[in-house]
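Task 17 of the worksheet. Students: predict the tertiary structure of the chain below and write it out as structure tokens. Keep your answer in the requested format; marks are given for formatting as well as content.
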Amino acid sequence: MTDTKPILLVVACALVDADRRVLIAQRPEDKNMGGLWEFPGGKVEPNESPEQAIIRELKEELNVDTKEACLAPLTFASFSYEKFHLLMPLYVCRKWQGTPVANEHSALKWVRPQRMRDYPMPPADEPLVAHLCDLL
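Model answer:
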């Protein structure tokens, strides 16, 4: 019998601007995987849909507002970390209100998908880059 790990459902969002750049956010140094770049998002709370979680997380992390109709699922990551298994759907959002600000991150950067590999990312985020390159 294999050792089972809890499954953690986390959502991520690729905000895409008019120039087809994607917003990535740098994790604070004092957090787990500090300094790495990631897509904004976070844990899905109990009784919350993934879309509701993205809308909430974008408001908390970046101070931007969007609607469920503006979120398009693109792909997902399934990655086994030491203590849990991460399942992370990635949504694309091209329409939102407000200018993103780093409320919970060290920095934000608009990056062309082909250049995203220049920024070190957590292992679960890395496979998502190829899908964004294909899309954009």
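Marker's comment: Residues 26 and 107 are 5 Å apart (CA to CA). Residues 7-135 form a domain with the Nucleoside Triphosphate Pyrophosphohydrolase fold (CATH 3.90.79.10).
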